[in-house]
Amino acid sequence: SERKRFYQNVSISQGEGGFEINLDHRKLKTPQAKLFTVPSEALAIAVATEWDSQKDTIKFYTMHLTTLCNTALDNPTQRNKTQLIRAAVKFLETDTVCYRVEEPPALAELQKNEWDPVVAWVEKRYNVTIGSSTSILGPNIPASTKETFVSHLASYNMWALQGIEFVITQLKSLILSMSLIDRHITVEKAVLLSRLEEEYQIRRWGNVEWAHDYDLCELRARTAAGTLFVHLCSESSTVKHKLLQD
């Protein structure tokens, strides 16, 4: 959806509940008419930049950080922290990088070469067993692996968890998402790995140029926004914690 830009200036201010976004002299509200407040100044600046970069019309579908903040504030699905974590970990059962092909051999080799190092890194980083499978049922993920990820994700706040789930949904992979959020791989690499089979087919058969390029740019934009959102939402609590320790 789009609407005509109705404001000249965008600014941020600190209120009781956090940082607010001002469009001229109006305070930004969520779709449920709550005051739009975010937990960190850096996130407020990033959201304000989204609003400021809109030209004659406001293209809401390009404003991924604003959308993620609205979701965190309004919580339209009314899920609690435990439900968010369980939904994220459930992706392990259908994780893109765990499902392998046997044919054609070239694609099977590509999956092994590109995906195995990421899976191995995550297994070492979190001290878990994941594995892969060519069966339609996928690999048998141990319960201890799932519980490890549940415990790890519990260390994030509700805002960051909304971002993590958003990234996982884009990449269809918890493994790629955690590698990205842990800064082991870049956004470009994560997106490429999530689309490995598609990229293989394109290299082999060619592509519908504009459609492929558009999808790729969109996926990168959403994945980058989600990752930035997680980092900016984790930042303030980490800094506060460090200051309290000092």
TrEMBL record:
<comment type="similarity">
    <text>Belongs to the ATP12 family.</text>
</comment>
<keyword id="KW-0472">Membrane</keyword>
<dbReference type="InterPro" id="IPR023335">
    <property type="entry name" value="ATP12_ortho_dom_sf"/>
</dbReference>
<comment type="function">
    <text>Plays a role in the assembly of the F1 component of the mitochondrial ATP synthase (ATPase).</text>
</comment>
<dbReference type="GO" id="GO:0005743">
    <property type="term" value="C:mitochondrial inner membrane"/>
</dbReference>
<comment type="subunit">
    <text>Interacts with ATP5F1B; involved in the assembly of the F1 component of the mitochondrial ATP synthase (ATPase). Interacts with FMC1.</text>
</comment>
<dbReference type="InterPro" id="IPR042272">
    <property type="entry name" value="ATP12_ATP_synth-F1-assembly_N"/>
</dbReference>
<keyword id="KW-0999">Mitochondrion inner membrane</keyword>
<dbReference type="InterPro" id="IPR011419">
    <property type="entry name" value="ATP12_ATP_synth-F1-assembly"/>
</dbReference>
<keyword id="KW-0143">Chaperone</keyword>
<keyword id="KW-0809">Transit peptide</keyword>
<dbReference type="GO" id="GO:0033615">
    <property type="term" value="P:mitochondrial proton-transporting ATP synthase complex assembly"/>
</dbReference>
<keyword id="KW-0496">Mitochondrion</keyword>
<dbReference type="Pfam" id="PF07542">
    <property type="entry name" value="ATP12"/>
</dbReference>
<protein>
    <recommendedName>
        <fullName>ATP synthase mitochondrial F1 complex assembly factor 2</fullName>
    </recommendedName>
</protein>
